[in-house]
Amino acid sequence: MRHKRDWENNDNFRRTIQSLGKAIESLREQQGLSRKELAQMAGISLSYLSRIEANNSESPCVVSFAVLYGITGALGIGMKSFLIYAESIERTLV
Q1: How far is the CA of 45 from the CAs of 19, 31, 63, 90, in angstroms?
Q2: In angstroms, rounded to a whole number, what is the distance separating the alpha carbons of residues 34 and 49?
């Protein structure tokens, strides 16, 4: 029987999660926002946003759709456009 969190050990999953964090950080910096400003705009804590952006393969931070939707809304980008952007970043992580 598979453990319910086996997906955390999947390299593709880890790259995808890492690319989401890098995409958020990149867009935030392009807009000249601090982490604190974006966290406030998205309605999440600064520490949570920091963990999302820093997503590393050792300790992936899984983001809910609702949180991701709040972050992308605060960044002024649609979810589809954001996911396409994150996918382009993911290709550089391979």
Answers
A1: 20, 19, 13, 25
A2: 11
Structure tokens at 7: 């997906």
- pTM for the whole structure: 0.85
CB 70 within 8 A of CB 44: yes
Separation CA 68–CA 33 (nearest Å)? 17
Q: What is the pLDDT of residues 4-32, one digit of tens each?
A: 566 556 778 888 888 999 999 999 999 99
Q: Residue with structure tokens 């520490």?
A: 47
Cα angle vertex 60, ends 79, 90, to 5°? Answer: 50
Instruction: Report the 3 state secondary structure along the chain.
Output: CCCCCHHHHCHHHHHHHHHHHHHHHHHHHHCCCCHHHHHHHHCCCHHHHHHHHCCECCECCCCCHHHHHHHHHHHCCCHHHHHHHHHHHHHHCC
